[in-house]
Amino acid sequence: MSLVIVLNELCAGLMLNELWIKRRKLKEWIKSKNFGWFEGHAPGYPSTNNALEGTNQSIKKVHTFRDRIPFSHFLERAKIILNRWSTDQVTIKKWEDEPMIKDAYWFDALAYAQKKPFLKYDKTCDIYLLTLDKMVDLEQYLDNLECDGDCIDECEFVSNLDLNTFFRYNDSVRLVKLDEQNWKFSSCSCRDYLKDYMCQHIIVVLLSKKSIQVPEKYLDSVIGCKPRPGRNKKAMPWNVRQ
Ligand SMILES: [Zn+2]
C-alpha cells in the first residue's frame, strides 16, 4: 500500500471518528431521552446533592457508629431515626429572596467593561447582545437562535463547525435580558448565571445603561491602585520561606 493511500485512509478514519464523536455527543446531549446534563436545566433547584449528603452524614455519625448490628436492633434504630429526622417536607422554604451579588461579579464586571465590549439591543426579543469579539455577526447569531434542533443535521452553518468551535462561537456572545422591576432578577445565557442567577454580564449591561452604579467599596478596582480584597494568595510549597 502506498504512502498516499495510507494517509488517505488515515484522514478518512479521523474524519469518520470526528463525525462519530459529533453524532454521539449530539445523540447523548441533545436528542437523548436523558438529555439535560447541564447547569441550568432545572432553574431554582440544587445542582448537587451536597445538602442531602450532609443529612446522611449526620445520621451516620449520630445513629450508626458504622457498626453492623442485628436486624432487630436495626429496626429499633430505624424507628428512632425516623422519629428524629422525618420532618415537614411539604412547606416550601425559601433560601433567599433574591440572588446574592458576589464581590467577584463586581470585580469581573469592571474588568470586562474595561475591555470595551460591544453591546447591541434587539427590540424584537427584548435582549441585549454582549460580546468582546468585534468580528462576530450578531444578526447571524440571533438567526441561529431560531434553530429548533430538528434541523441541526442539515444546518449549513453549524455543520461546518466542530464541537469545540461551536462552543466557542456559542460563548462568544452573551444574551442578557433585563428585569425592569428588580435588576437582580435579570438573566443571562452564561454558565455563571445558570449557577448563581447572577453574573458579570448583567452588571456590565446595567452599568452601560447607567441603571446602576458601582458601589463605593469596589471603586478602587476601577482605578487599579489596590489589589482585590478577599482573594487568597497562591500557596507556596511548605519548604519555601515567604
Ligand atoms: Zn452572564
From TrEMBL:
MF terms in GO: zinc ion binding
PROSITE patterns: ZF_SWIM
Keywords: Metal-binding, Zinc, Zinc-finger
All copies of domain SWIM-type, residue ranges: 174-210
Keyword Zinc-finger part of the UniProt annotation: yes
InterPro entries, A to Z: Znf_SWIM
UniProt cross-references to Pfam families, sorted A to Z: SWIM (PF04434)
Protein name: SWIM-type domain-containing protein
Source lineage: Eukaryota, Metazoa, Spiralia, Gnathifera, Rotifera
